[in-house]
Specification:
The chain folds into three domains: about 160 residues, Adenylosuccinate Synthetase, subunit A, domain 1 (Adenylosuccinate Synthetase, Chain A, domain 1, 3-Layer(aba) Sandwich); about 90 residues, Adenylosuccinate Synthetase, subunit A, domain 2, CATH 1.10.300; about 160 residues, Adenylosuccinate Synthetase, Chain A, domain 3 (Alpha-Beta Complex), CATH 3.90.170. It has twelve helices and 17 strands. It has a nine-stranded mixed sheet, with helices on both faces. Strands 11, 13, 14 and 15 form a four-stranded mixed sheet that branches. A two-stranded antiparallel sheet has the order 3-4. Helix 2 runs parallel beside helix 6. It starts with a strand and ends in a 9-residue tail after the last strand. It binds inosinic acid and magnesium ion.
């Protein structure tokens, strides 16, 4: 039982939040291990509507401890805002939220650089969320980062910031931005740090003890496999690894402790930001998917690019993550489409090619091999039994499962907690 990892198989926004919300009901620990405030999901419950970027949604279940592991980039402003919203709703995080002092902190100059790099790249921009993720991670791996631990030593923090702000200002001014002032940053960030200081405590022993005791640990991946810097279409990716394997570096969970990897896939494809998306629909059908699915980014509000389900992408993601099961989300969005298409693979210059063999340019140029299947006219949102789904919906799900090669054990048919259908193969999710 110990560790279940939930990951996204596509470009993020697969609906991981709701699967995590479901599994968190039975979790002792919910752990974030990657990404930062670029992630975002909306939690709707009895207490209200919450837009969460950093704090795991386990915070809403009273028996659960929420952990932000060292692999997460912490934005102190965003974190402070989330804590405030929780407090206002009567959710007490004290004693139930741990933040690793090893977390790198997104500084204001990271956000400025994120915007300036994007502007300077023009047509070649990535379409980042503008949260400073790339520049903060770049500082981490080039030995220039500031960690939460640094805030406990004001003199050391000041020395580091003098050096970093000196370097960054030269870059920022050269790119046409406004320089930062060390004292101003310290005044603002010290106050923010004081508010979160009670939560800063290395969580690895809590995690290890929970694993030794056979308690239920849930690791919540942010973003999706198709944004991994190594395995996705570089540079159209994000900085930290969204793979299940990220839990070792990002939270101190040994790979051998993982026994379940729940791969979340949306019943069609969406992407925000630039980069290849072989099944993208730029026509009326894409627009119809966006409208039906309300496909706008949680963090940025940008319209998401929409397209058919790409089984080659999801198959490869499941392979890379060692997926033990698939949770298919948002099947109801496809209600009323007369015909649906599924990409079963790609061709490049007329020859079949696998995702793994494609470089970025090839992913831009390749054509999806599309299989057309029958859609269904009934609405599925009220259905709870797999057998009650329209025949065409079952055939669609079963065809996806066949192509992806991993059992689909859970199907989302709406945003509410109970809007789920479990095919009978579903022995153990939730
Ligand atoms: P960054 O992570 O803000 O640097 O953005 C890099 C790429 O990842 C851009 O294409 C973003 O749109 C995308 N991205 C980052 N976080 C998310 C997410 O949580 N959901 C969907 N896309 C994301
Ligand atoms: Mg999201």
């Amino acid at each position: 039982m110990p560790v279940t990892v939930v990951i996204g198989t596509q470009w993020g926004d697969e609906g991981k939040g709701r699967i995590v919300d479901l599994l968190a009901q039975e979790a002792d620990l919910v752990v974030r291990y990657n990404g930062g405030s670029n992630a975002g999901h909306t939690v709707v419950n009895d207490l209200g509507t919450f837009k969460m970027h950093l704090i795991p949604s386990g915070i809403f279940s009273p028996r659960t401890t929420s952990i932000i592991g060292c692999g997460v980039l912490v934005d102190l402003e965003v974190l402070t805002g989330e804590l405030r919203a929780l407090r206002e709703a009567g959710v007490e995080a004290t004693g139930r939220l741990l933040l690793s002092p090893r977390c790198h902190v997104v500084m204001p100059y990271h956000k400025a650089l994120d915007r300036l790099y994007e502007q300077a790249k023009g047509e070649a921009s990535i379409g980042t969320t503008g949260r400073g993720i790339g520049p903060c991670f770049a500082d981490k791996v080039s030995y220039n980062g500031i960690r939460l631990a640094d805030f406990a030593r004001p003199q050391l923090l000041r020395e580091k910031l003098v050096v970093q702000v000196g370097i960054k200002n030269r870059l920022i001014e050269a790119l046409g931005g406004a320089a930062f002032d060390v004292d101003e940053i310290i005044a603002q960030y010290d106050a923010l740090y004081n508010g979160i200081e009670p939560f800063v405590r290395e969580p690895i022993e809590v995690i290890s003890q929970a694993i030794r005791d056979g308690r239920n640990v849930l690791a919540e991946g942010a973003q999706g496999t198709m944004l991994d810097a190594d395995w996705a279409a570089y540079p159209y990716c994000t900085a930290s690894s969204p793979l299940a394997s990220g839990v070792t570096g990002g939270a101190g969970i040994p790979p051998t402790a993982i026994d379940r990897v729940v791969a979340v896939a949306k019943a069609y494809s969406t992407r925000v930001g630039n980069g290849p998306m072989p099944t993208e629909l730029t026509d009326e059908t894409g627009e119809r998917l966006r409208r039906a699915g309300g496909e706008f980014g949680t963090t940025t509000g940008r319209p998401r690019r929409c397209g058919w389900f790409d089984a080659e992408v999801v198959r490869f993601s499941c392979q890379l993550n060692g997926a033990t099961e698939v949770a298919l989300t948002r099947l109801d969005v496809l209600d009323g489409f007369e015909r649906l298409k599924i990409a079963t693979g790609y061709t490049c210059n007329g020859k079949p090619i696998s995702y793994a063999e494609c470089d970025t340019a090839c992913l831009q140029e390749c054509r999806p091999v599309l299989e057309e299947v029958e859609g269904w006219s009934e609405s599925t949102g009220e259905l709870r039994e797999y057998e009650a789904l329209p025949g065409a919906a079952r055939r669609y799900v079963e065809r996806l499962q066949e192509l992806v090669g991993v059992p689909i054990v859970l199907i989302g048919v709406g945003p509410e907690r109970d809007q789920l259908v479990r095919p009978h193969t579903a022995a153990h999710v939730g």
